[in-house]
Amino acid sequence: MHNTIRRDLPLIKNQLLLIIASKPLQLKKNTMTSDPFLSDTSYLAGFNGVFLEEMYARWAASPTSVDESWQRFFSGLGDTAGGVPAASWNDNPRGVIGKGDDEKPKSGGKGAPAPVLDKAAMEAICHDSIRAMMMIRAYRVRGHLIANLDPLHQEPNKYHPELDPATYGFGPKDMNKEVFLDGVLGKRTATVQEIVNILQNTYCGNMAVEFMHIQFPEQKSWIQKRIESASGRPDVSPEEKKHILRTLVEIEAFENFLHVKYPGTKRFSIQGGDAAIAGLSVMLETAVRNGVEEIAIGMPHRGRMNVITTVLGKPYTELLSIFHGNLDFPEWVDSSGDVKYHLGISTDREIAGKSVHLSLSANPSHLEVVNPVVCGKVRAKLRQKGDLDTKKTIMPVLFHGDAAFAGQGSVPETLAFSELKGYRSGGTVHIIVNNQIGFTTNPKNSRFTPYPSDVAKMVQAPIFHVNGDDPEAVAYVCKLAAEFRQEFNRDVVVDVFCYRKYGHNEGDEPMFTQPLMYKAIRQKKAPYAIYAEQLLAENFASQAEVDALFEEYKQRFERDYETAKTFSPNKADWFEGRWSGLKKPDPKQEHPAGDTGVDAKKLKAIGAKLTEVPEGFNLNSKIARQLEAKREMMEKGEGIDWATAEALAFGSLLLEDHHVRLSGQDCERGTFSQRHSVLTDQENEDRYTPLNNIGPKQAFFEVLNSSLSELGILGFEYGYSLAEPNGLILWEAQFGDFVNGAQVIIDQFISSGEIKWLRMSGLVMLLPHGFEGQGPEHSSARLERFLQQCGEDNWQVVNATTPANYFHVLRRQLHRDFRKPLVMFTPKSLLRHKLCVSSLKDMAPGTSFQRLIPEVEKLDDKKVRRVVLTSGKVYYDVYEARQEKGIKDIAIIRIEQYYPFPARELKAELKRYPNAEIMWCQEEPENMGAYRFVGPRIGDVLEEMGRENVKIKYAGRPEAASPATGYLKIHERQQKQVVEDALASGNAATAKRGKAA
Ligand SMILES: Cc1ncc(C[n+]2csc(CCOP(=O)(O)OP(=O)(O)O)c2C)c(N)n1
After folding, report:
1. HEC letters along 694-763
2. 243 and 278 in contact (C-beta within 8 Å)?
3. Is 637 left (phi over 0), alpha (psi -120 to 50) or beta?
4. H/E stretch holding 898
5. Whose C-alpha in 347, 459, 617, 770 is 20 to 30 A from the C-alpha of 951?
6. What does pLDDT average to over the chain?
7. Facing residues of 348 across strands?
8. Ligand 1 atom at shortest distance from the alpha carbon of 273
């Protein structure tokens, strides 16, 4: 017998290859994945014939010499010479992935009488199996391309050759042919027609999924199991059906009500995409059943009214009151307010029998920019909850428009950090309201791929596409999305294909630009009506019930409309929870400096810890020298440099139980190699963070090298700061100018969030700034832009010149009873400047942040003929030159805080120099920097002093288009000129616009 086998080995090998190629489970199970059907290479590639031949020969010689699974496999083939038994074509009702090792064919096994096939017949069988497998895989990968997703049926007949059975050799005559599937699709065998039916129902119905791009076998397997076992119809309970119907009726009734009561008023109706809202509420329910306790939502304009009311439970009276034109905050709160479709809400609701905290972040008009903010907020809350390990208790949900999701850079920036250490928020569920239009732009002008969701593939998120006319399908994929998020803590996308009933807003005429689309839309029944028809057909609800429900809502809205007319809010929700105890400061009053001084002994103790490393830690020799210098500095209490002052501020706050989080590009070491907040062992790259080892009872210091993003990361940190008033949250720009990539976050949130939405933030932005000849982009953090945005006490803009002042201003962030963002211009060359040092005395109890630093030398005030007002690094240039020249009649005053402007201190100082002319000195060009901001303010101070007509002189670079020259020589010449102008004898000139350098 064995001889026979050996003689036939080549033949058998070929046959085996064909069979085995279609049944990799047993062969590759141990070496590849637990589920080889999920592997891209699982059934066609990479099988080693020689290896197989050897295994077969070994088994033939001695069956027990090979592994059990091989024994089962070969014995299952039968042992007659040249004969491989036919497969057993019996249905296999088992799981969808493949058959288990322990199961044997019902016939054809060892000892069973097996029909003997000739080679050609065997090959034909194998070919059918292989081709069927190829077709199955093609449907898993591309089935979505011919799915029934568009409620408007705009596309011509969809055809994809890879989804055509003929491509696999299955013509019309082959449809009844039985094919061996070995458990795939839950079948041992199936006819070609059955296979095609299963595939089309599963992958090409009203729900479709893209998941084969995921490289994690468990995730892929999870989705495949859920989808393939759903047999193409959503699994939705009777309660969910009821809930969906209610939600759809509520939406339709409310939108119609608004349309009649407030004709032409912008509300960005969701109509056409109603199912997305119903899906959201089912998703929340599922999330709560799966352990979620809090949900943070971010979304754009469309459907916001419905989410606020239908899902988050804002009383209709309150919303209608805003439609009436009433304020949404009590008048005394003094908010500038925002349009109604930007408003946020924070509330508790009972979901699935549990009280759940729900919030919808206030949102600016800039699409998608809220995404990182929501994720940052969730991250901070997860830390507070102590759930950074599982991240299952709080879930972020982001809504998107299709055009915005495909086009806005904030989307990939946010996705990019979703899986990074320090930035994970446990996976975001994304819902795209894919109404197939962006304002007036068709998708073909927005992207070249069929879906708006492709960008999410960069993080291997599964993407569920679904037809918005099938709300049960929408609800079902929303449930799957929530479950997937809870299972894997990864982002997941639901793409709801729908339409937009009106134009971009209710006043827009869409027929101008999309006449065909809108002819189709006008033929459509409302989503609730389509669903009601389905439920009537299912005998689930009667028309009378649906009509009664509709009537109930109409009457409710009428009632609420009447009460809304006189409704006025009596409370603003902004100092609740962790914010309680804080308050809005009076913008007209000078804010207290805060109790920021720290005992030298305590600072020395922190300093000592900062310079220690664990036993056996292999420090870099240069770092060792730096630590040594730091140790000396701390022991003497003198010569404290910028980075050390910063570490002392952080350390002292940590010991006061304030969490400190610093994030930005390369900020662990510091762009200028100044910080070294994380030390690296030179032998094994172990890392040690001294600031997390300064005391037995201290808060957590988190320092993170971020992804190379400004908008995304700054948005994230801003979001974090919204949720964490008791932490010092800092974002550092690599060079200050890079902050312009995050301008939207600054404009829409940081500078204006408090006044628009009553949301405070104590975020600190560290912006390296200073003219040192590093060219146009590494000199200026565009101070002027921040100064232009100062108003209504919105934030603080500081350009400190001493380490001690930096120490105080950082500590001040947490030592007052309010929070304000701090825009902090930080030095580069001053990090190592011999004069830019402080002593521990400057940080001692009783000392505090100086908003203005007066002249430091003893001058005869009466003889001072010029007061040079300046700020930042150029101060040291002017000071050193003055001292070198022995000039005694020019005083220099430093404005350390531009905003709020230190008018009181300036007045007191200027009084000392009654005979002096006043000059502003800056190193920035005249149209940049602080000149045009401080000019009028200094003028006001002078006027108050009775010196109305005093002209403010100017020393600085002339107006320029580019902030700085790229040539070092020109830079040096310009810098010298600035200093010379500041110290020039005689009367100084006033600024001349456009003066050549
Ligand atoms: C960053 C940004 N650019 C432009 C706009 C102006 N705008 C508002 S809505 C809109 C269309 C958005 O289309 P889509 O994302 O598909 O959402 P839809 O309005 O269709 O729901 C545009 C261009 C904006 N709000 N934000």
Report:
1. CCCCCCCEEEEECCCCCHHHHHHHHHHHHHCCCCEEEEECCCHHHHHHHHHHHHHHHCCHHHHHCCCCCC
2. yes
3. left
4. strand 897-899
5. 770
6. 89
7. 357
8. 21
Phi-psi region of 845 (alpha: psi -120 to 50; beta: other; left: phi over 0): beta
Of residues 38 and 215, more confidence is placed in 215
Higher pLDDT: 84 or 545? It is 545
Hey, which residues does 823 pair with through a beta bridge? 765, 797
Q: What is the Cα–Cα distance from 783 to 733, expressed in whole angstroms?
A: 13
Q: Which residues contact 937 (CB under 8 A, 6 or more apart)?
A: 901, 903
* Contact yes or no for 503/518 (Cβ under 8 A): no
Span 632-682, pLDDT tens digits = 999 999 999 999 999 999 999 999 999 999 999 999 999 999 999 999 999
State what percent of residues in the chain have pLDDT above 90.
78
CA of 260 to the centre of ligand 1 (A): 25
Angle between helices 192-203 and 217-228 (to 10 degrees): 110
Do residues 797 and 782 touch, judged by C-beta distance below 8 A?
no
Nearest CA to ligand 1 atom 10: 439
| pLDDT band, residue 217 (cuts 50/70/90) | very high
Number of C-beta neighbours around residue 721 at 10 A: 30
Q: Can you tell me the mean pLDDT for 273-287? A: 97
Instruction: Give the number of the atom of ligand 1 that is nearest the alpha carbon of residue 452.
Output: 16
Span 730-747, mean pLDDT?
A: 96
Nearest residue to 202 (alpha-carbon basis) of 144, 133, 276? 144
The residue to which tokens 């350009």 are assigned: 799
DSSP classification of residue 459: G
Ligand 1 centroid – CA 301 distance (Å)? 9
Q: Helix, strand, coil % (nearest 5) of the chain?
A: 45, 10, 45
Task: Kindly list the strands in the beta sheet with 796-798, ordered across the sheet, starting from the edge strand earlier in the chain.
Answer: 701-705, 660-664, 728-732, 764-768, 822-826, 796-798, 897-899
Mutate to test the pocket of ligand 1, among 306, 439, 501, 745 (most ligand atoms within 8 A of CB): 439
747-776 per-residue burial string, b: 16 or more CB within 10 A, e: under 16: ebbbbbbbbbbbbbbbbbbbbbbbbbbbbe
Ligand 1 centroid vs 247 CA: distance in angstroms? 25
956 exposure class (CB count in 10 Å sphere: 0-12, 13-18, 19+): buried
Question: Where residue 52 falls among pLDDT bands split at 50, 70, 90?
Answer: low
For the ranges 314-328, 588-602, 814-828, which has the lowest average pLDDT? 314-328
494 in Cβ contact with 432 (< 8 Å): yes
CA atoms within 13 A on the CB side of 895: 30
State residue 996's pLDDT score: 44
Rounded alpha-carbon distances, angstroms, from residue 746 to 235, 281, 343, 388, 788: 45, 32, 18, 28, 12
Q: Is there a contact between 963 and 782 (Cβ–Cβ < 8 Å)?
A: yes
Q: Which residues contact 614 (CB under 8 A, 6 or more apart)?
A: 688
